[in-house]
Structure prediction request, 384 residues.
Amino acid sequence: MNPIPYGRQNITQEDIEAVVDVLKSDYLTQGPKIAEFEKAFAEYIGCKYAVAVSNGTAALHLCTLALGVGNGHKVITTPITFAASANCIRYAGGEVVFADIDPKTYLLDISKVEEVLKSSPKGTIKGIIPVDFAGRAVNLEAFRKLADQYGCWIIEDACHAPGGYFIDSKGQKQNCGNGNYAELAIFSFHPVKHIACGEGGMITTNDEKLYQKLLLLRTHGITKDPKLLQENHGGWYYEMQELGFNYRLTDFQAALGISQLKRADDGLKRRREIAMVYEKAFTEIPDIKGQSGFVEGHGYHLYIIETEKRKGLYDFLREYNIFSQVHYIPVHLMPYYKQYGWKKGDMPIAEKYYERCLSLPMYPTLKEDEQEFTIKCVIDFCKK
Prediction:
């Protein structure tokens, strides 16, 4: 059996041709493919505006800047995420406040967030960054009510969940990143994500002022828009009006994203099929806890099991060329965050989850025999 990774990109001939067409064109960056990708992605998600950027971390950073995070500002997020979900707060000079996860969903626990808000001096918590972890959509309707009560904004980290959704209190489908409950949302186009650009990210919003701010911050804080210039010396003239960054996406990356987006729903359907096969296979295995059965709207970027024998199973699978992964080491236990006083025991549910979690192979091109072999190896290990 060839190596089976936990995640893998799927590059088709159509993808290759789309990129080659751009490489043969007049623009490699700051060309027409960027706007085309933004428009197509906004339509797919169901929001008004989309801003393409160089990666998901850049997207998070720009969101914190656009919302005015600064020194002394506290923002709540989850410890079970990639470090960038927390680091973006630090990039802007803010203070990270972790709240524990729900053991059933692995998502930021709204009751724990409320406890933090209640115990904090009024106005010190500026925002909340929930994460659609593993592809499961956060119920942002509930978070919006809580955020409004305490005067907080919301950034939805939807890197794992393009095409994911939750059902609101009116029975309506709410797509991840559609902007109906969060001021801003972000996505990643890393190779193992649903849509791959090599690297790349997208910010979505329904707020025009935030959209315009993001466009400025993405490109060094520079504008050539005559309507925004304080002076105008001629056609060559531009102004740097903010301290921005070079967080642009290239046209050939955007072309790859456009091509991948066309089959995003097919990939999502296949991920859900794979997840259901795993769920059925592990239902009667006492040593394995699956991912909570079928969840409507789940994007299944990851399929996670829990086991008391995580290290042994991880090593056993590697012996058979199955490369599972752990998502994630709790961010509050990273050495960087420990220096701010975070320690073991602060997030007991997240810490227990970390000791047991293992991500199994999950990607649309995973073959049936590869998944069957993975399942067999997991069960064989549990029988030892």
Observations:
- The domain at 264-383 is CATH 3.90.1150.10 (Aspartate Aminotransferase, domain 1).
- The first strand starts at residue 4 and ends at 5.
- The chain has a mean pLDDT of 97.
- The first helix runs from residue 13 to 23.
